[in-house]
Design goal:
The chain is of the alpha/beta class. It folds into two domains: 165 residues, nicotinate phosphoribosyltransferase; 165 residues, nicotinate phosphoribosyltransferase (Alpha-Beta Barrel), CATH 3.20.140. The chain contains 17 helices and eleven strands. The longest helix has 16 residues. It catalyses: 5-phospho-alpha-D-ribose 1-diphosphate + nicotinate + ATP + H2O = nicotinate beta-D-ribonucleotide + ADP + phosphate + diphosphate. Belongs to the NAPRTase family. This is Nicotinate phosphoribosyltransferase.
Length: 395
C-alpha cells in the first residue's frame, strides 16, 4: 500500500495558497529544500523506498468525487477546481540523492514552477516519516490510543475548559497515514465539540470534519522576490491575500520576518480586515500580549479577534494558553505531532522550506532562532537590515 493514496492528503493551506498562485503568480519559479534537524538519523539507508513512494505519488490524480468536494469549499473558485482536474505532480521537479558529504543525510530539492510544485511539501514529509518509522519501529496503536485518550481526558474533564477547542495540524510529521486515519475519529468522539477539525483535506472529507488552514510561511517568503521592494513584501503579500479572498480565510501569519516587523506592517487597515493572527515561533504568551495590545492601540476590539496558536503545542500548553487569554480574545489551537506521532518512538524533526523564488534567495526570520533555512548569509544579513531585525533572530 502506498504511503500517499490521495492528492487531498495534505494541508488545506496548500490549496488556498495554490489558488492565489494560479490567479496572481502562475509563472513564478521556486526552489524548496529538505532538512532533517534530528541528529544521527540515517535516512539515506531508505532512499530507494522513498524514491519508489515519490514515483507512486506522481501517478495520482484528483478523482471526480474529490473535485466535487473541493468545489464545495466556499472559498474555492471554479477555475481553480477545474485546474486541479488537470493537475498532477511531476517527478522531473524533484532531485533526490544521498549526501556525499554527510553520511546518512538525505538531500532533496524541489525546483520548478510554484504552481506545479506547491503540493509536494506535505506528502513528501509524510512519506519520509512513514518510511523511517516503518523500518525502525513497530506500530503500537494500543499505546497510541491510550495516550490519545489520556490527552482527551486532560482537556475534556478539566473544569472551565469546556469552550477550549483544538484542531489537528499533524499531517507532515505523523507516524503514519494509517494512524492519522485511525486517531481522528477517536479524538472527535472523545472530545465532542472541543474538537473542531483537521488541516488534512482528505481526512476531513473522509470523516466529515471541517478542514482548517489559510497561509504558510512560503506564501509571504515568495513575495520577497515578487514584490516591488523587499521592505514592502509583507504588505504586498497580505494585500494580495485580501484581494484573492475578499475577507475570507482571514488569519495572517505573523512571524515570517519577526513580530516587530509584522506589527510595523500590520496597520489599522489590516487590523480591521483580518480576523486574527497565527503564532508559530517565539514565546506565545508574550506574542499574544503584544498582538492584543496592538489591536487595542489601533482602536480595534481585541475580543473580536482570533489568536491561533500552532507552535509545538501539547494539551498542557493549550490549557495554559487558554487560561491566560480566555475572555481577552477568541482562541484557536492547532496541535500537531503531539497527536499524530505519539506512539512511543521519538518523532523526527524534518522540514521542507522554500529557499528561492525567481532565482533570488528568500527566507524567514522567525521569533525562534534556528527556524530559518537559507544558504545565502549575505541575503539573511540584508533581510535583517531592511526589516530592522536583530542579528540573533532567525539565525
Amino acid at each position: 500500500m502506498a504511503v500517499i493514496e490521495s492528492l487531498l492528503d495534505t494541508d488545506l493551506y496548500k490549496f488556498t495558497m495554490m489558488q492565489a498562485v494560479l490567479h496572481q503568480h502562475p509563472g513564478a519559479i521556486v526552489q524548496y529544500r529538505f532538512r532533517c534537524r534530528t541528529p544521527g538519523i540515517d535516512l539515506a539507508r531508505y532512499i530507494d523506498q522513498i524514491d519508489a513512494e515519490i514515483d507512486a505519488l506522481c501517478t495520482l490524480r484528483f478523482s471526480a468525487g474529490e473535485l466535487d468536494y473541493v468545489r464545495g469549499l466556499r472559498f474555492v473558485k471554479p477555475d481553480f477546481a477545474d485546474f486541479l482536474g488537470l493537475f498532477h505532480l511531476d517527478r522531473k521537479y524533484i532531485a533526490l540523492r544521498a549526501s556525499t558529504d554527510v553520511p546518512g543525510e538525505l538531500e532533496l530539492e524541489i525546483t520548478g514552477p510554484w504552481l506545479h510544485t506547491i503540493l509536494f511539501e506535505v506528502p513528501l514529509l509524510a512519506i519520509i516519516n512513514e518510511i523511517w518509522f516503518r523500518n525502525t519501529s513497530e506500530a503500537d496503536f494500543a499505546e497510541g490510543e491510550r495516550r490519545l485518550q489520556a490527552k482527551a481526558a486532560l482537556l475534556r474533564d478539566a473544569p472551565g475548559f469546556e469552550d477550549c477547542r483544538i484542531a489537528d495540524y499533524g499531517t507532515r510529521r505523523r507516524y503514519s497515514g494509517r494512524w492519522h486515519d485511525h486517531m481522528l475519529p477517536r479524538l472527535r468522539d472523545a472530545l465532542g465539540d472541543q474538537f473542531v477539525g483537521t488541516s488534512n483535506v482528505h481526512l476531513a472529507r473522509k470523516h466529515g470534519l471541517t478542514p482548517h488552514g489559510t497561509m504558510a510561511h512560503e506564501y509571504l517568503q515568495a513575495f520577497q522576490a515578487l514584490g516591488p521592494r523587499l521592505r514592502d513584501s509583507q504588505v504586498v503579500a497580505l494585500e494580495a491575500w485580501a484581494h484573492e479572498y475578499r475577507g475570507d480565510l482571514g488569519i495572517a501569519l505573523s512571524d515570517v520576518v519577526g513580530t516587530d516587523a509584522f506589527l510595523r506592517d500590520f496597520d489599522l487597515y489590516f487590523c480591521k480586515l483580518f480576523d486574527g493572527v497565527r503564532h508559530d515561533s517565539g514565546d506565545p504568551f508574550d506574542w499574544g500580549d503584544r498582538m492584543l495590545a496592538h489591536f487595542a492601540a489601533n482602536r480595534v476590539d481585541p475580543t473580536s479577534k482570533i489568536l491561533v496558536f500552532s507552535d509545538g503545542l501539547d494539551i498542557d500548553k493549550v490549557k495554559r494558553l487558554y487560561a491566560y487569554f480566555r475572555g481577552r480574545c477568541r482562541l484557536a489551537f492547532g496541535v500537531g505531532t503531539h497527536l499524530t506521532n505519539d506512539l512511543g518512538p521519538t518523532p523526527l524533526n524534518i522540514v521542507i522550506k522554500m529557499v528561492r523564488c525567481n532565482g533570488q534567495p528568500v527566507a524567514k526570520l522567525s521569533d525562534s532562532p534556528g527556524k530559518s533555512m537559507c544558504d545565502d548569509a549575505g541575503y539573511l544579513a540584508y533581510l535583517r537590515q531592511v526589516f530592522d531585525v536583530r542579528a540573533d533572530a532567525g539565525a
